Amino acid sequence: MRAPTALPRSFYLRDPRVVAPELLNKLLVAGSRAGRIVEVEAYCGREDPGSHAYRGLTPRNAVMFGPPGRLYVYRSYGVHWCANAVCRPDGVGEAVLIRALAPVSGTEEMRAARSRGQIHPLAERDLCRGPGRLCQALGIGGEHNGADLVAGDRGVQIVDDDVVPPSEPGVSVRIGLTKGAEHPWRYFVAGDRHVSGRPWRCQ
After folding, report:
1. Residue extents of the structural domains in the chain
2. 5-188: what CATH class?
């Protein structure tokens, strides 16, 4: 097996509904911590009322409008950081939300980051199960907004270590939306215990 390599810029230039299932089983790396991507959601800009980019460019969502291969990080409900891989050419405003990881390395660092205030140590399956949890576990925050996932300029990359995406990923509507909730743009590794939410498939 070859050494892990960062996904090229061209990978992210495509429709997020194409990129999202192909991100499954890639590694999200942040310093010494890494997890295998097992759940994602696609967000499709101005055609998608569930997207931050639906109403156009703002100071908050500017990174989402490009260039591709950047990390768009935002705070959800003022509490949790969430990380997205920016897709499409500059100016489009589309991205893939990374929803869950299976920890691969730096598990104890993840547990320390996630266990503050906890009485009992967290189970491994709960360290990165959900977009806010995985950012906390990997130490991803607002300072990483705009980080280059290809160059790894802030220590964060998505890399390929030759583990292929599932041939038939799980598919469902996205979680927690009130607008655009009907779109089946959530993809996950079916049967993986680290997946958040309901592991069902849309027909």
Report:
1. 5-188
2. alpha beta
6-60 pLDDT per residue, tens: 999 999 999 999 999 999 999 999 999 999 999 999 999 999 999 999 999 999 9
> What is the 8-class DSSP label of residue 61?
T
Instruction: List 85's β-bridge partners, or say none.
Output: 71, 96
- Bridge partner residues of 70 (DSSP): 148
Provide CB contacts within 8 A for 28, sequence distance 6+: 34, 35, 36, 37, 83, 98, 101, 134, 138, 156, 157, 158
- CA–CA distances in Å: residue 163 to residues 45, 80, 98: 29, 29, 17
- Tokens standing for 171? 């598919």
Q: Answer for the pair 100, 39: CB distance below 8 angstroms, yes or no.
A: yes
**SS3 call for 40:** strand
Return the biggest CA–CA distance within the chain. Answer: 46
Contacts 24+ apart (CB under 8 A), 168-174: 169/21, 169/24, 170/195, 170/199, 170/200, 170/201, 171/201, 171/202, 172/197, 172/198, 172/200, 172/201, 172/202, 173/202, 174/41, 174/50
Residue 176 has a CB neighbour count (10 Å cut-off) of 10
Place of tokens 């490009």: 66
What's the start-to-end Cα distance of the chain, in Å?
36
Q: What is the pTM of this model?
A: 0.94
> pLDDT (tens digit, 9 = 90+) per residue, 133-148?
999 999 999 999 999 9
